[in-house]
């Protein structure tokens, strides 16, 4: 055994240095078996598959720049007088947190750039996650076996929101302080425990002397730590499941078509990291973000209009802005529904998204693995539900910025608020109906294309004077791609009598599922895809159109 | 989530059963069959060495630009003073250092990425390869083996047989995190009645926030807006932030005839009314006073209160009126509080009643 | 003295002196001004008032009444003072096209400064009110910028934002942006409280306080203001930043992603 190994290592002595290092590592870590499975791993190419990479890279950039910022930031609410180089704040009282943020922005070379990269990356990170999540949703990539990874991603989005919010609050400026005040008010609205949680979070009354230090450890340690774990898990699962792909010639549910990790994907993905970093650095050079010196230090008796949170919290801001001021007093207690309902809705709207994969798999009853992506049009009900959700989200965003809508479009803030109140409910319904119709229309068009060919735009006059447009038959690749999707039958409630003729109890959930399934896949909810027979019948009589 | 009862025939047939790993050819019976992976087509760079050379030079150029940009970054860092500003069209006056550092860093990074991607796109093999997938779930034998192993292990531990151990173990594991929860108790004090009281008390003068001088009725004109704090509270005080967060006051003067609310009139002095500046919704300092309508708007969530009618909510998400401070004039002619607010200021909470 | 000489050079010096004179009570004025000069001023003053009255009758009386007593279309102008006239007419808010609508917007001034001064003289003659401030009052000399910032955040930012960009009020009303507004007009607005803006009289916001606020605005909201981080994005805060991040941030990155993932051009089949 040992002689064999020695002989091997003697032989390796002549091998290139890199190979020798790899051998050394393999002897201790067993990296070769890992590399064997992954080095030439296949990844399909599609721009929408890189949305997740945008998130991953902006997350890395946030960590890198964040570590730099911790070297200069003082998470303390001790009061100091400002004597830095920004003149309009000279001699003002402020917390050390604000003072050190000013120091980073005006007295550390490159400090402002890093702060701006950090903040821009955070906005892009959240926006990237949102779009990535929508891509996964609308293509059905959350289906088995990827439900857990969907949840990982969802948690990353939610934790990202709170990490962003705690970070936004750290400079202790007038704008973010107003946001923290809002948080305190929202916490106070919670029945029974509200005042206690508020006292515990702020170490006493608002604002106290503790929240910056506490938010700091949450922002730089607790939440990013959890997120890092989730990101690693998310990536391991992406590798393990292998990437999904769109239907196309040669692409089946049992394979994955693309380029190998080494070298093509490594160069592209690695290069993309630099492209993302470079783009964000350029944005940070060109566009100013969160100018805390304009806002000034936080004081609970001062405020600026146009007080909004960063965009990812705009949805919560919208919910709270359009809610009517309901307050119930019962038996000496106050139920602050005007704040508490939005707080609950915030959770419900997000939870609906998180649970969707499980709801859909219950409706379809499909337990197979799915690796071929749906085109959104081929899952009309899902697509319509998704668009309805996005519509609701967007309407709350409009509500969150209602004052800016008012000033920039010369509207009344009251009318906008009423618009949001109504369209929070009506908007999603309209979006659902419209989307479904558009999807069905597109399905019909696909069917026509398969059966009658592509419209060429060439007009031909027939001998008897009739004008027709020449249709060109599709290639086999196109025929396959357009007919590759699966169509479910609506689930029926099983027979009321079992095989032994004994009457069976039909569960209520079973009836419910049959009903929903009908709404998903029933008549008029999808266009039956062309069958081979239909195709043959039409194509056999050539020239017919 | 059990779905055993969905009949198999309800699930659509898998389309890919027609094609076989990308080698199927169009067959007469099924015109929709998978034709398999299309043959690889060459790029210009694959067949024309000159084009490939051009690509190589382009990639090298990009990497060189990156090196130059990094040098530029270092030069900018050393050479540009931090307080220097320049005018850049159309952006405006910006920090020269931030602008230079950001653009050089951005260029240095972007060109590395662009070079790598250009290299991958034009010079690395672009032959598409198909890799087989394997079911995620284990084979039945493996599944059976794992289940058996687990049962064996459980049996050997006797966890099922020795119920006393099991019960007490779960009990201990359930209780031990309580210590951690307990430790959080000292994060802050109990609420008690802290949210019910402010610094205002009988005889406290209303001090102008701007001048730090006590206010006289004649200082406050109709249509004006003044902010006040209780006498004795200074910006340097240790607890200034906590106290001003509750005590901040907004003072306006109305024509007594315009005041609709009886109590408001009683608690005012010659039409001068003093209201809490802290919104009853979630606590923003509300002070967008429209002197003609006597409405005051919260800039955060647009709750609107009518100062001529007991500061009642007339729009938006706030649930109750702004608390009013009872004021009068002392012997020396200064405005003074006649007591604390009679209800908690700021956002509502469960114990508010 | 320096202030006085600066004033003398001004083409409208005489008129400004006139307006000042109008504002003071007769007794005070007599105590400070030599009798003979007062005599001459009075003549010029009554001339200006006459001119102002004519202008008023043509351009303003239809809404504000022939004697400025007000009507259903416009408020009484008795006692609003010269400062209010200088602000309203000088910023083009008056004459307003209509008394309907949520708020009268500022636009290009219709009257020349000389005409405005005459109008102001006439209105001031109807009843005592705040005078047009002098450059000594609204100039930035001797101002504390940082104190002005603190005062601005306490008194003004709730409507105009900390950066002075303006914001929404109820039912279509709004606090306008303060960018590019003349220091004199800012001073007058604080003094007089135009439209729905509350006033900040000297008793609660001293002359020095106003000076400080104007100096602060000049520092943060002028053409020369440095935005060290780059594009100001309208100074609207997180909403415009969020839009920018979506459109130019994520948008640019997706454009790059499309390039990275796109197939390289194939050689033409020959």
UniProtKB/TrEMBL annotation, chain A:
<feature type="transmembrane region" description="Helical">
    <location>
        <begin position="379"/>
        <end position="398"/>
    </location>
</feature>
<protein>
    <recommendedName>
        <fullName>Cytochrome bc1 complex cytochrome b subunit</fullName>
        <ecNumber>7.1.1.8</ecNumber>
    </recommendedName>
</protein>
<dbReference type="Pfam" id="PF13631">
    <property type="entry name" value="Cytochrom_B_N_2"/>
</dbReference>
<feature type="transmembrane region" description="Helical">
    <location>
        <begin position="261"/>
        <end position="289"/>
    </location>
</feature>
<feature type="transmembrane region" description="Helical">
    <location>
        <begin position="49"/>
        <end position="73"/>
    </location>
</feature>
<keyword id="KW-0813">Transport</keyword>
<keyword id="KW-1133">Transmembrane helix</keyword>
<dbReference type="InterPro" id="IPR005797">
    <property type="entry name" value="Cyt_b/b6_N"/>
</dbReference>
<keyword id="KW-0679">Respiratory chain</keyword>
<dbReference type="InterPro" id="IPR027387">
    <property type="entry name" value="Cytb/b6-like_sf"/>
</dbReference>
<dbReference type="GO" id="GO:0008121">
    <property type="term" value="F:quinol-cytochrome-c reductase activity"/>
</dbReference>
<dbReference type="GO" id="GO:0022904">
    <property type="term" value="P:respiratory electron transport chain"/>
</dbReference>
<dbReference type="InterPro" id="IPR016174">
    <property type="entry name" value="Di-haem_cyt_TM"/>
</dbReference>
<feature type="transmembrane region" description="Helical">
    <location>
        <begin position="150"/>
        <end position="170"/>
    </location>
</feature>
<feature type="transmembrane region" description="Helical">
    <location>
        <begin position="330"/>
        <end position="358"/>
    </location>
</feature>
TrEMBL record, chain B:
<keyword id="KW-0479">Metal-binding</keyword>
<keyword id="KW-1015">Disulfide bond</keyword>
<dbReference type="GO" id="GO:0016705">
    <property type="term" value="F:oxidoreductase activity, acting on paired donors, with incorporation or reduction of molecular oxygen"/>
</dbReference>
<feature type="transmembrane region" description="Helical">
    <location>
        <begin position="100"/>
        <end position="120"/>
    </location>
</feature>
<dbReference type="InterPro" id="IPR014349">
    <property type="entry name" value="Rieske_Fe-S_prot"/>
</dbReference>
<keyword id="KW-0679">Respiratory chain</keyword>
<protein>
    <recommendedName>
        <fullName>Cytochrome bc1 complex Rieske iron-sulfur subunit</fullName>
    </recommendedName>
</protein>
<dbReference type="InterPro" id="IPR036922">
    <property type="entry name" value="Rieske_2Fe-2S_sf"/>
</dbReference>
<keyword id="KW-1003">Cell membrane</keyword>
<dbReference type="Pfam" id="PF19297">
    <property type="entry name" value="QcrA_N"/>
</dbReference>
<keyword id="KW-0001">2Fe-2S</keyword>
<dbReference type="GO" id="GO:0051537">
    <property type="term" value="F:2 iron, 2 sulfur cluster binding"/>
</dbReference>
<comment type="subunit">
    <text>The cytochrome bc1 complex is composed of a cytochrome b (QcrB), the Rieske iron-sulfur protein (QcrA) and a diheme cytochrome c (QcrC) subunit.</text>
</comment>
<feature type="transmembrane region" description="Helical">
    <location>
        <begin position="59"/>
        <end position="80"/>
    </location>
</feature>
<comment type="similarity">
    <text>Belongs to the Rieske iron-sulfur protein family.</text>
</comment>
TrEMBL record, chain C:
<dbReference type="InterPro" id="IPR009056">
    <property type="entry name" value="Cyt_c-like_dom"/>
</dbReference>
<keyword id="KW-1003">Cell membrane</keyword>
<keyword id="KW-0813">Transport</keyword>
<dbReference type="Pfam" id="PF00034">
    <property type="entry name" value="Cytochrom_C"/>
</dbReference>
<feature type="binding site" description="axial binding residue">
    <location>
        <position position="160"/>
    </location>
    <ligand>
        <name>heme c 2</name>
    </ligand>
</feature>
<dbReference type="GO" id="GO:0016829">
    <property type="term" value="F:lyase activity"/>
</dbReference>
<keyword id="KW-0679">Respiratory chain</keyword>
<dbReference type="GO" id="GO:0008121">
    <property type="term" value="F:quinol-cytochrome-c reductase activity"/>
</dbReference>
<feature type="transmembrane region" description="Helical">
    <location>
        <begin position="243"/>
        <end position="262"/>
    </location>
</feature>
<comment type="subunit">
    <text>The cytochrome bc1 complex is composed of a cytochrome b (QcrB), the Rieske iron-sulfur protein (QcrA) and a diheme cytochrome c (QcrC) subunit.</text>
</comment>
<feature type="binding site" description="axial binding residue">
    <location>
        <position position="64"/>
    </location>
    <ligand>
        <name>heme c 1</name>
    </ligand>
</feature>
<feature type="binding site" description="covalent">
    <location>
        <position position="60"/>
    </location>
    <ligand>
        <name>heme c 1</name>
    </ligand>
</feature>
<keyword id="KW-1278">Translocase</keyword>
<feature type="binding site" description="covalent">
    <location>
        <position position="63"/>
    </location>
    <ligand>
        <name>heme c 1</name>
    </ligand>
</feature>
<dbReference type="InterPro" id="IPR050597">
    <property type="entry name" value="Cytochrome_c_Oxidase_Subunit"/>
</dbReference>
